Amino acid sequence: MEKVIAALWAPDGQDHAEYGAHLLKSLPAALAAAGAHNIRLNVRDAAVAAGDGLVQRWQAPQQAAIAQFWMPSANARFRGEVDAALAAHSASFAAWLVCESTIIANTAHSCSRNVSPGKRAAGEFSEAKHFDIPERTWGWSQASFISFRADMTRAEAIAHWHSHHTRVAIETQANFEYVQNLIVRPLTENAPAYDAFVEECFPLEALTQPEVFFDAVGQPDKFAANTAAMMESCNGFIDFTRIDIIPTSQFDCG
User: Fold this and answer.
1) Which of 44, 52, 158, 223 has the most neighbouring CB atoms within 10 Å?
2) What CATH code is carried by the domain that includes residue 59?
3) What's the predicted TM-score (pTM) here?
4) Domain range spanning residue 140?
5) How many domains is the chain partitioned into structurally?
């Protein structure tokens, strides 16, 4: 099985909330019918609108949603129906093959899709025709497309990310899910030249309260130390001129 990350751009004139609702209604079923599994959507809906100040932008226009899924092979000859489903649900899309590393699994706030007990008992929920609107994961998800510094080799950047930054991200933040996706190769032409996609989930209050984000409510010294440690570590391997970071609502769709 191979994991695919797809960035989706909304049609002109369609706002984030409207576009997200459209995706949730029909894209999971379309991807499942095309052979995708373990589908997750990240959308920019009203629930995360308060976090607009956290957006960091390289692409213009910026991607409006992300689809994550697994398939037996992401080779082009086997991906036609998946690509067609993504194209039918976006003005444009870009996709990458990634290597996933789950640093912190979401065991504290996991949820299941909104499927009726009868369908679940019958084992029918994996078939596209039975997809219902999935349940939103508690809190919010920071979806980060990042690029490594140009003055570092790929090996050096990965070494800093895995050997140093991972520990810092665990120790300085209130993240209850943390998944690193190293980009192996682009799957579509003209895909932005990112090196990784990172997803971290936080309490909803972290959208507007940095002290919550950095796990330091009521502790100004800890807040200052955690913020400084995170910024120093990020600067050690990330090119901040080539990143797209967006707050999203996370939906696991089966």
Assistant:
1) 44
2) 3.30.70.100
3) 0.90
4) 2-252
5) 1
List the chain pLDDT tens, one digit each, 254 residues.
999 999 999 999 899 999 999 999 999 999 999 999 999 999 999 999 999 999 999 999 999 999 999 999 999 999 999 999 999 999 999 999 999 999 999 998 876 443 333 333 333 334 434 557 788 999 999 999 999 999 999 999 999 999 999 999 999 999 999 999 999 999 999 999 999 999 999 999 999 999 999 999 999 999 999 999 999 999 999 999 999 999 999 999 87
d(CA 30, CA 24): 11
Overall size of the chain counted in residues: 254
- Assess contact for 197 and 97: CB atoms under 8 A: no
Tokens linked to 162: 């895995």
Give the DSSP per-residue string, 43-101.
Answer: E--GGGGGGGGG-B-SSSSPP-EEEEEEES--SGGG-HHHHHHHHHTSSEEEEEEEEEE
CB 136 within 8 Å of CB 251: yes
